């Protein structure tokens, strides 16, 4: 049976239009480093390596990742060369991201991911037990991040055991001044358990790298009459245990501090 030539031409035109549209809808979206950092679910990746105190400071490996719509790393390709290449690719393939959206739809994304090369952790030589908690309302957590020679966000957070969050923005933040919020009792318990698991009272009081112009972070906890604060001045570069950075990030995440800090998503106001 002979087919109608006009129908054949119509079908060919439809297929041509679809082939032109499909690459646009399925195209891989390129994502900025800052956006990728905000979508990362797993902890910021690092590689620990033996090195002398002044060897290769601020070293990192850069990878180009393709992340599927579900947030899994589909491929990881090293940019440049590094003796840590195989370890970096292995670590990168285990990363998980919140899906990247385009017009409200999860899409494949191309991500530039940095993996820092850090010295081995300096672990506590002695154990100082975490204080007993008689009343969670008599517990307070704190985090401060200072300004630097640049535009580092400067702010303070305090969280009391009843879940009250007090924020004070100082400079290079979206909200300058004081704000109050709340977190759940479960989040307070999560913080308490994280500080206890980190053996916080056994860690050093200060981890400082001998450089200038960087921001200073201070993190602390008070339980009844006992308190401890840790100064983190580029501490990871001198062997500060990674758990300190994890606690800093946990405070930011549980309080959703980015709603006050992130100048990219909010208009600057006082």
Key terms:
globular; five-stranded mixed sheet; 25% helix; seven-stranded mixed sheet; 270 residues; 2 domains; 14 strands; Mago nashi protein; TolA/TonB C-terminal domain
What report would you give on this structure?
By secondary structure, this protein is α+β, with helices and mostly antiparallel strands. The protein folds into 2 domains: 29-119, TolA/TonB C-terminal domain (2-Layer Sandwich), CATH 3.30.2420; 136-261, Mago nashi (Mago nashi protein, 2-Layer Sandwich). 25% of the residues lie in helices and 31% in strands. The chain has 6 helices and 14 strands. The strands form 3 sheets. The protein has a 7-stranded mixed β-sheet with strand order 11-10-9-8-13-14-12, with helices on one face. Helix 4 (185-197) packs antiparallel against helix 5 (242-255). The radius of gyration is 24 Å and the shape is globular.
* Span between termini: 77 Å
Order of strands across the biggest sheet? 11-10-9-8-13-14-12
Approximately how much helix is present in the residues? 25-40%
Radius of gyration: 24 Å
Q: How many structurally independent domains?
A: 2
- Tell me what portion of residues adopts beta-strand conformation: 25-35%
Specify the overall morphology.
globular
Largest sheet: 7 strands, mixed
Q: CATH topology of the largest domain, what is it called?
A: Mago nashi protein
Mean pLDDT: 88
Corresponding CATH architecture of the largest domain: 2-Layer Sandwich
Structural class: alpha+beta
CATH superfamily of the largest domain, please?
Mago nashi
Count of alpha/pi helices: 6
Low-confidence segments, given as residue ranges, are 265-270
**SSE order in H/E notation?**
HEHEEEHEEEEEEEHEEEHH
Count of distinct strands: 14
- Please write the CATH class name of the largest domain: Alpha Beta
């Amino acid at each position: 049976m002979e087919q109608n030539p006009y129908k054949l031409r119509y079908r060919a035109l439809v297929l041509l239009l679809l082939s032109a549209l499909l690459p646009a809808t399925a195209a891989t979206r390129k994502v900025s480093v800052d956006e990728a950092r905000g979508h990362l679910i797993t902890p910021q990746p690092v590689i620990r390596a033996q090195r002398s105190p002044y060897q290769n400071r601020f070293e990192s490996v850069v990878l180009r990742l393709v992340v599927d719509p579900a947030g899994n790393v589909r491929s990881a390709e090293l940019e440049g060369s590094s003796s840590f290449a195989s370890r970096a690719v292995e670590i990168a393939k285990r990363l998980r991201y919140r899906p990247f959206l385009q017009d409200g739809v999860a899409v494949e994304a191309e991500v530039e991911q940095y993996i820092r090369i850090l010295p081995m952790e300096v672990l506590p030589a002695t154990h100082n037990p975490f204080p007993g908690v008689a009343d969670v309302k008599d517990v307070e957590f704190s985090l401060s991040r200072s300004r630097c020679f640049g535009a580092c966000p400067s702010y303070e957070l305090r969280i009391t055991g009843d879940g009250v969050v007090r924020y004070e923005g100082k400079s290079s933040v979206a909200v300058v001044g004081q704000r109050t919020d709340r977190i759940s009792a479960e989040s307070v318990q999560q913080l308490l358990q994280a500080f206890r698991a980190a053996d916080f009272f056994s860690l050093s009081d200060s981890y400082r790298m001998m450089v200038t112009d960087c921001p200073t972070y201070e993190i602390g906890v008070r339980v009844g009459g006992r308190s401890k604060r840790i100064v983190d001045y580029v501490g990871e570069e001198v062997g500060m245990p990674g758990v300190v950075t994890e606690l800093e990030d946990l405070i930011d995440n549980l309080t959703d501090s980015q709603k006050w800090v992130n100048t990219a998503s909010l208009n600057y106001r006082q």
